[in-house]
What we know:
Blueprint: E1 5-8, E2 19-26, E3 45-46, E4 51-58, E5 63-69, H1 77-87, E6 96-101, H2 114-133, E7 136-146, E8 150-152, E9 154-156, E10 162-164, E11 181-189, E12 200-205, E13 218-219, H3 223-235, E14 238-243, E15 249-251, H4 262-283, E16 293-303, H5 309-312, H6 324-330, E17 335-345, E18 354-358, E19 362-363, H7 366-374, E20 380-383, E21 392-393, H8 396-401, H9 417-432
Parallel strand pairs: 3-13, 5-6, 12-14, 18-20, 19-21
Antiparallel strand pairs: 1-16, 2-4, 2-7, 4-5, 7-11, 8-15, 9-10, 11-12, 16-17, 17-18
Amino acid sequence: MKAPVTFLLCTISAAAQFRAGVAKADLDPPTGIPMAGYSVRYSKGTLDPVEARALAISDGSRTIALVTLDLCYTFDPPVMDEIRAAVRGTPYNVDEVIFAASHTHSGPTYAASPEAVKHAIPRIAGAIQAAARSMTPARIGNGWGQTYIGFNRRYLEPDGAIEMFWRNETKITTTFPVDPTVGVIRVDRAAASKNDAPLAVLVNYACHPVVLGPENLDYSADYPGEMRRFIEQQIGGMAFFLQGAAGDINPYFDKTTLIEDAVELMKQTGRKLGAEAVRVARSIQTAAPTQPRILTKTVIVEARNRWNIDKLRPLLDPHYHMEPLRAARLIADPMQLPQTTLLIRMGGAPDQDLAFAGLPGEPFVEFQTQLRSRSPLPNSFLIGYTNGYFAYLPTIAAATRGGYGADSTVNPTEVGTGERLVNTALISIYELLGKLSEQPGKPR
């Protein structure tokens, strides 16, 4: 059976113009509800705001919003659909909303509190509408940098065995693979001068936001929040964090205890990433797309459960961020995984176009390097934790070696699902570029 597909294209009008707007909302979750990411613990306060940030972009025919969330994983599908419905058909209509979570382990577990969800929905919808309402003619561009704030937590022994290596504060031990690539997208107002603040700076990087450990009972965006603050202090605008394929990547200062000054080490980690992002952002020459086209495609990838369901069910740990809805997803068979691809076409040379591939889980880092090396567009970005959450997505090789995230209850999809999702994204990029068609050609 052919997978269901959402295939949305825009038509080009003579007045096509690239426009962009930004807005944010403090989610302001109530204290006392479970925090996500580690074993269940209950929040007592707020260290720094957990936010929803919205970037709305339009090509004159269609408007989409990219919404980043300071959460361990995105909201459940019915909640995301409710937010999408709230911003569709309004005076500032938003045709599509793409949600991406940072994977902070110091955020709330919304599935455990229906009242908290009701509180969050209008705030997020309001931020999306505010971003769409504020859209202005804009320029866009991107650049690349490198920095190391983390390492691969799966240490490969000489005999081929995997040892989980959670913390590497000495930075002496080298593990592989790691991707130090910092992808930066800059959006400027069309009328901005060289020294004006950007409208938005988006940073794509792969590393678990777990500098703050389970001892911390205060809500926090972890290092991505400090990265954003640093960027905004240095060059202005609104900064966004797009988590990459962080499934096997930890920060050097993983699960820092409060005695070790966890907050300061979290801030140091964020500032280091922010400093490289600022350096790159300052070097980017943005341009107004001559014929902007915003294209998206969502494909539902069906995957079988990797495990015997009867044997899996009693192994699910109710104390390890396993609220009922998430546990139900881990024992589903088959599973329906949405893979969303976004293209921003500039109208000039293809090497100016931007491609974003969203995967609904925790992909291992090799998948983002594979995407960049195989994509027909050099400016391609993998975003994990997007439009859903189906736990870990290891490579086939990692699945055979085992270890956390590769052969346990936290990676329920059949072996090879990650590869299929990346291949699906690549096919979608080619289709959105017009390089593939459902119409067969004539034999030559």
